[in-house]
Amino acid sequence: MDLYQQLILDHSKRPVNAGLREPFQAEVHHVNPTCGDEITLRVHVDGDVIDDVSYDSQGCSISVASASILAEEVTGHDLGEVRETFAAMKSMLTSKGEDPGDEEVIGDGVALAGVAKYPARVKCALLSWMALSDALARSGHQIDTDPDGGTR
Q1: Domain NIF system FeS cluster assembly NifU N-terminal spans what residues (predicted)?
Q2: What's the confidence (pLDDT) of residue 148?
Q3: Are 115 and 93 in contact (CB under 8 A)?
Q4: Count of CB atoms within 10 A of residue 5's CB?
Q5: Percentage of the chain surpassing pLDDT 70?
Q6: Does residue 20 form part of some domain?
């Protein structure tokens, strides 16, 4: 088994920051209707830093591992770094395998690079990231930017 497969299995079996915690400023629930993956995600921002991300994720190992990787990569980081990490993950996962990912920016997220070649699985891997974007927007922070640099 290669390192990336092992990282996905490790994150899915022992997810980082799993379980819903308080305090939180926003909570969202996202569902992937194609396969049934679900996540309830809470975010707490202190100043310009994501103080805590907690979640309850149910679904395939890719979906659960992606939520765990998200929690590991964004907790304790400022919103500028999180914006960069979010953009890099989204780019890699939607690249159809053209973008191998930058480990310096997305850490263990590079383990999910192979998912980009399977369109049906991309939604599994992106579910938690889109939930984070939504939760941050609901708490008054934007991280998802359109190609022209504006926020949406």
Answers
A1: 4-124
A2: 44
A3: yes
A4: 12
A5: 93
A6: yes
Contact predicate 48/37, CB 8 Å:
no
Phi/psi of residue 50, nearest 5 degrees: -75, 110
d(CA 103, CA 20): 28
Residue 62 included in any domain: yes
In which residue are the tokens 């599994």 written? 124
Is residue 63 in some structural domain?
Answer: yes
Query: Which residue from 29, 23, 28, 37 is spatially nearest to 135, judged by alpha carbons?
Result: 28
Structurally, the chain folds into a number of domains equal to 1
In order of 2, 20, 37, 45, 121, the CA distances from 42 in angstroms are 32, 7, 17, 10, 23
**Which residues span the domain enclosing 109?**
3-138
